Amino acid sequence: MATTLSTTPTSTTSAPDTTAASTTSLTFRPGRWIDGWNPEDTTFWASQGRAIAKRNLRWSIFAEFLGFIIWQLWSIVVVMLPGAGFTLSTSESFWLISLPSLVGATLRFPYTFAVAIFGGRNWTIVSAALLLIPATLLGFAVQNPETPFGVLLLIAALGGVGGGNFASSMANITYFFPQREKGWALGLNAAGGNIGTAVAQLAVPIVVTLGAAGTFNIQLAGWMWIPLILLAMWGAFRFMDNLSSAKADFAGAASALREPHLWVMALLYIGTFGSFIGFAGVFPKLIADQFPEFSTFQVGATSLTLAFLGALVGSLSRPYGGRLADRFGGARMTIVAFSAMILATLALILTLPLASFWTFLGCFLVLFVATGMGNGATYRMIPSIFAARGAATAGDPHAVSTQRKGAAALGLISAIGAYGGFVIPQVLGASQAATGGYTAAFWGFIAAYAVMLTITALVYLVPRASLAGHRI
Hints:
By secondary structure, this protein is mainly alpha-helical. The chain has helices at 42-71, 74-80, 90-118, 120-141, 149-158, 161-176, 179-208, 220-223, 226-239, 250-257, 260-290, 308-328, 330-351, 357-392, 402-417, 420-435, 439-461, and strands at 3-6, 25-29, 33-35, 242-243, 297-299, 302-304. It is built from 17 helices and 6 strands. 51% of the residues are buried. The chain is globular, with a radius of gyration of 23 Å. α11 (260-290) packs antiparallel against α17 (439-461). The chain has a 4-stranded mixed sheet with strand order 1-2-3-4. A two-stranded antiparallel ribbon has the order 5-6. Helices cover 71% and strands 4% of the residues.
């Protein structure tokens, strides 16, 4: 039986955001469906809405965090396969690292609309359950060195389902929070997911070597996450909600796809987020290739790799990129980020002949910080650009709502940007195959970052009529 709950003000002298009488009336239906959700009603939000939204946010972050772990799991598993008796070429290794990113980026498109079709709670349960497949299969496949490469590649591709979780999770949280708090909520959601890459790269080497000296239970690389995935499914089932007000905006998405600025920002996001997820995926492999003696460190009876530091600092720096973009402008901070990425990559190239692991690590950590800050800055630019486009097209009766286009653009750009996770490893693999090293690829990245920096300056730093004369 459905139950109805109305919110009313408790005092006429309360703070400004709770003085107006609430007009929101919630109806709770079986299956944890909620009708009448209106987070813009400040009285409702203060009295009930915030608590419900935060509860959904917490479990959304946890499920997305696990999605990132499964998505990027092969980045650390690949460098451990030789210890399990596997013999892989460099090209095969990079395919195992990059294919999950290709699949995950592609799945972000349908995942963006899945929440509106199936419900945020329902889809979180389903998307978390899908993670069980690659996690379970990985544990079986890596126990037998005779497992065909095609089977390994298929299981790695299935890990791409974790990459789609970001899009559905971000879309779901967008529906729960009011405009004035979306940035905070989405920032927490994104950072909570991104850090999953670092956790996977830190935890897997430790867990698989736990026990007596010489222990190497590589199957645990996949199986260790199964209890946490089951917990996420239970948490979503027990504590999350579906909102009937969440609607799939196909018209807004179609309109956003016709907007030239979406494609410009998608390119820039490939440069920032794509570089982050791409380098995070290959960093353990690069360390193993360039400095095999530093690939792992023994801590007691367990192994530890420092590769996780790249994904960690990149994830933690993302919110600061957004915060600085709020203060100084998204375009300015994106230019700063690309400049730092160029300098860090150039320093990496110039210091590679020194064969110093610590210099190599330092250059890469600076590069990761710059990509993380660039993620936050470019993502912050998107709503500003569409707001400016709305001002430029004001009065056009055929124009789709700027807010609708901007919301659709966030999901689409995040999907396109994730393809960088496929491009970066493939370029590095091609460089290794053609030249025997990675220097040529790094020069190519510098050239790409320089082009993106120039585009950002010319399109978004210089006032333009198409953006109502605004600097972004």
